[in-house]
Amino acid sequence: MKKILYMLLLSFLILSACTSKEDTQEHTEKVPEQTDDNTETIVEEETEPEEDENDHDESEEDTETEIVEEDEEIAREYYIDHETYRVLPIEEGTNTQVALLTFDDAPADYALDIAYILKEYDAPAIFFVNGMFLNSERGKNVLKEIYNLGFEIGNHTQNHPDLSKLSYEAVNEEIISTNNLIEEITGEKPRFFRAPFGINTEASEQILKNEGMQSMNWTYGYDATPGYLDKDILEYKMVHSEYLDHGANLLMHDRQWTRDALPKILEGLRYKGYEFVNPKKLEVRP
Questions:
Q1: Which of 91, 156, 227, 246 could cross-link with 128 by S-S, CB 3.0 to 4.6 Å?
Q2: What is the bridge-based pairing of β-strands 214-215 and 78-80?
Q3: Which carries the bigger pLDDT value, residue 79 or residue 27?
Q4: Once rounded to an integer, what is the mean pLDDT over residues 39-63?
Q5: Matching Pfam families, A to Z (predicted)?
Q6: Closest CA to 175 of 127, 211, 133
Q7: Which CATH topology does 78-283 take?
Q8: Using CA atoms, how far apart are residues 190 and 178, in angstroms rounded to an integer?
Q9: Which pTM value belongs to this model?
C-alpha cells in the first residue's frame, strides 16, 4: 500500500515539474516578440522623417517665395525735382504729403544706431556713404548690416571734398571708387549721389549721367549747423521748420544728437500727417 502511495506521489511531482517547465518556455519565447515589437517601433520612428522631408520642401518653397517677393521690382511712384529737390508724384492721385529721410556721412559712428531706430519705426531712408569709412572691416560690416535692414545706399564721395576745387579726373575718382566699394559690399550700385556741401559741378553731373545716377540735395536740415547741435533743439526744429512742406527732402547726419533726436522727429512728422517715402519708389532721372 505504501508502495502504491509512493508511486502516485512520484507521478504527481513529475507532472508538476513538466507543467512548470512548459510555462517557463512559453514566457521565454514571448520575450523576443516584445523585443521585436520595440525594434519595430524604433524603425517606424526612424522612417517617419517622410513628414520632415515634406516640411523641408515646404520650407524651401517658403524661402523661394520670399526671394521672388524680394526680387520683384517696387513700382516707381515719385521722383526728385532737379531744381527744388522736393519729392514729387509721377502720377496724379499719389499721396503728396510725404517726406524723404536722408542721412549723410555714413557709416561713421552712429549710422547703425540710426538704422535700427528707423527700422523700429518702420521709417525708410537713404544713407549717403563716404568711401573713406569703408576701408575698415567694421565700416564694411556696418554698411552691409544697414543695407540688409532694407535701406537704400547712396554715394557721398570717397573723401568728402569740395568738388568745385577738383579736376574732372579727381571728381571721377571720388564718385566711381565709392560706387565700386558700395557695390562690392552690398551687391548693388548706388542710384543717387549727394555732393559734399551740396556743391555739384559740370564734371560731377556728366559723370553721374554716364553712370545713370541722379544727384540729390535737400530742402532743409539743421544738425550740422551751430546752434542746433542739441537733441531737444533739433527735435523741435526738424518738426516745426518753416520749410516743412509736402515732398520735403530732409537732410540729417551720422551724429549723436541726431540719433538721440530721431524718435521724436519721426513721431512729430507722423503726427502732422506725413508719410515717409520709400526710396525704392523713387525714379532716377539723370
A1: 156
A2: unpaired
A3: 79
A4: 35
A5: Polysacc_deac_1
A6: 211
A7: TIM Barrel (3.20.20)
A8: 9
A9: 0.76
Q: What is the pLDDT of residue 73?
A: 77
Q: 108 exposed, middle or buried (CB, 10 Å; 0-12, 13-18, 19+)? A: middle
In the β-sheet with 87-89, what is the strand arrangement from edge to edge?
A: 87-89, 78-80, 282-283
- Please give the pLDDT value at position 239: 99
Coil, strand, or helix at residue 241? coil
DSSP 38-96: HHHHHHHHHHTTHHHHHHHHHHHHHHHHHHHHHHSPPPP-EEE-TTT--EEESSTTS--
Q: Is 196 within 8 Å of 157 (Cβ atoms)?
A: yes
pLDDT score of 72? 58
Secondary structure of residue 215 in the 3-state scheme: strand
Phi and psi dihedrals of 242, rounded to 5?
-65, -15
Pure H helices in 149-167: none
Measuring CA to CA, how many Å separate 120 from each of 123, 148, 257, 269, 278? Answer: 8, 14, 18, 16, 15
